[in-house]
Amino acid sequence: MQCEICGAGGSLTAVAVQPRSETINLCETCANGLKGEAVPEGHWQALTTSMWSESDAVKVVSRRLLNRFKDEAWAADALDMLYLEPEVEDWAKAAGPEVIHRDSVGAVLSSGDTVVLIKDLPVKGGGFTAKRGTAVRGISLVSDNAGHIEGRVEGQRIVILTEFVKKR
Known about the structure:
By secondary structure, the chain is of the alpha+beta class. It is built from 5 helices and 10 strands.
């Protein structure tokens, strides 16, 4: 058997594709990548092939992952070409991969966490600079963007890029 996303052989894991709970067989790299872990550079390029699978579950996972990388030209091009039947499209949108927020060193962030700024950040429209070392308590996660969190600095609610924070 081969991984239904990248075609790798070897040990495979059955992964349920929610909310229908149909399963697909993935290699360890793809299964871990689906959870938000790092994968080798260029690994997800295989999605441009797997999106044409005859299995609706594979198409759903491919679309969800392509959507995760839609800011990259290759993924945007693939999404433009991808056509799914309306019921499959609804399935793909129903329970997409969870957006995982990570700080500058890769620690997973959760709502309510405290983070520390690792760089002076000019606050657009705020008229001040948030200083390096400032603790931001009780952060909120931006649900559709893993690179953004929200927090209160100097009494003002601002959006902060996760690459400029470290979990405390």
